[in-house]
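Forwarding these from the shared drive since the link keeps breaking.
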Amino acid sequence: MDNRFELAEIGMSAESFVAGDHVIATGSLGRTEPHRLYLRVLDRPADRFRYEQIGYSPRVTVHSPE
């Protein structure tokens, strides 16, 4: 994910996630460090929260339930 200052600018904080949240992470494995993931999308299905790394700018969206 981005650095904490960029995350704070888009509304993420230490309270954005709690232990036990079910999340789905999508990204690319690190080339030189196979246990690392370059995070592109982080979804939390419970409230349709989505973090996306688009180019150089992160984006957060939360969709209301249908």
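-- next protein --
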Amino acid sequence: MKRKKGGAGIWRIVVIVLVTLAVRDQLRLPPEERTWHGRIGGRIPYDFRMPTIERMRAAFWDKDTSQILVPQPFGVGWTINLYPLLHPGLARNSDD
């Protein structure tokens, strides 16, 4: 008996479309202007640079913001900043 993929198939298509749009935007730029990070449609963040420890730490454990959803250190979309979840009174509110 085969299981229906339903939602998983749709999400896979959405991710492929978003990655394609981000790569297309970068390839339209002259090579010296390509940064491999930015926003799709000015809203959805992407970053295809090699991840560093600093960017990973800033994404998953950023004490300098109270934002919970922050851009991925690699890929498309957002990830969860755990610091304000585990220390709600200690995160700096730099977004105000």
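DSSP finds three helices and five strands in the chain. The first strand starts at residue 37 and ends at 40.

- D.
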